[in-house]
Amino acid sequence: MQNENILKLSYLPQLLSQNPGKMNFLQRLKNVIVFWMLKGLNTALFKPLLVQMKAEYGIKPEKSLAEVFDDKELTLFMSDFAYEYPQPMRPDYKSIGPVSIQPVQPLPSCLRQEIKSSGDDGAIIVSFGSNVASVLDKDKVDIMAEAFGRLKQKVIWRLQGYKPSSLCDNIIVRDWIPQNDLLANEKLRAFVSHVGMNGMYETLYYGVPVVAIPLYADQFDNTAQMVEKGVALTVDYNNLTVDDLYNKIQRVIHEPSFRENAQRISRLMQDRPRSPVQEAGDWIEYALRHESLAHLRPYSTQLPWYQYFLVDVAVFLVLVVLVVIMVIKYTLRLMCWMCCRRDKKQKTQ
């Protein structure tokens, strides 16, 4: 798998690189550096766990970390090429789509009434996920509250921990919200989010434009990709201001291109014969019905790096060319020597 990833570095943004899909030279250089840094970091982090796992599950001690990761029958990726950057995939890699998408359920009566009362202005939802919602800085929460209070839309805000003492009438704060069901509502105008993987796919599936406030890790990559696809604008959390947040929300709501791009991706994601959960079940059952899926695994996984990248072939061809050049060189020298010798002989006679 490592060899395949190296080949993709020229056109596929690496995790945590924050690169766009179309990279210039410096971005491709950054892609390579980030790849090798992550490889070293993964080895350092996972090696102790691997030693423990080997002892616990009786894994052969001679297997390397890469071999352990590669020793599987099938890999299911919760990604969808309706949105993701296109790339070649092995037959034993299956892109099934986001399994977090659930059938839409009726909203609780209180939320249903709030959204209904929003009229033509509609509503937006704000959520920073389970891990972040309770640890947002108080000053940032106050800035968000002031920006949301300026909006005409109803604001349904998932917020835990600190809550501002006074909120405008259009803001509804809840410890938990049915995010999947709210995103599916026709009155929803935008989603303010940290752009975690699940939230990103849910909002794309329902075609809702985003104001992204990434906080850490892959959220910056997700944001960069959504901005490039024309479905989001980004706000810097560390330099958050009321005006910037308010203006970005206004643009996402009122500039048609954001919703049009989001709706186009939504139509592509929903146009599939089986849901992601059903497709995952299909492939798992397929794997269980057969003793081995070795027929899906390409022979390239068994090749050492110098054979995979044809280094041995390249070296051989270079040697052949050098030999041919040397033969031609010495042949010409021999011919020149013979010609010179003949000329001298003729002059002597």
UniProtKB/TrEMBL annotation:
Keywords: Glycosyltransferase, Membrane, Transferase, Transmembrane, Transmembrane helix. The chain crosses the membrane at residues 305-328. It comes from the Eukaryota. The keyword Transmembrane applies. GO terms for molecular function: UDP-glycosyltransferase activity. InterPro entries: UDP-glycosyltransferase, UDP_glucos_trans. It holds the Pfam family UDPGT. Belongs to the UDP-glycosyltransferase family. This is Glucuronosyltransferase.
